[in-house]
Here is the input.
Amino acid sequence: MKHLKRLFITLSSMLCINILSYSQTLLIEPSISISEAKRYLGNGKLSDSISICTTYLYDTKVVKKYKTYVTADLNDYLPPDDNVADWNCTEITEEEEALLNKQGVMICDTIIVDAKVAGWYKVSHQTVEEKRMQAKQNINSGIEKNQNRNKYKPIRTKKDLQEALKGLIKSSN
Here is the structure.
């Protein structure tokens, strides 16, 4: 029993070391961009789509996660039925909803940056990773070469602000 416990502790610590060695440091808060478009689906059909890209900037890589919502025509995802002329105008049962969810089609009712997303949408996810080509930089890199170093002091009080304004007025005259 003691041997199993030691083995478990050893394996656990090795796993933690591996996780730490491959972990990345997020450099800045993730940025989000959103685009709206019309997509041509074929057969003369157009569909609204909203694409959301969240970008994460790490030490050695850039990760972009895309989430795309495309308006779904339920007639394209549910089997033909003699009792149903148009699935879009019919109440959907739990069974039918489960079938739609398996195909990535789901009911949405949300607002994404002033765009109302309500109805049935085909939702897809994609993640793209790229290596960062720019070398890792220190936040203080380049300060040694800065000509204005120690020339200006930070403004922290009202008195500092007034002195800085006086200095600007004198230098402009």
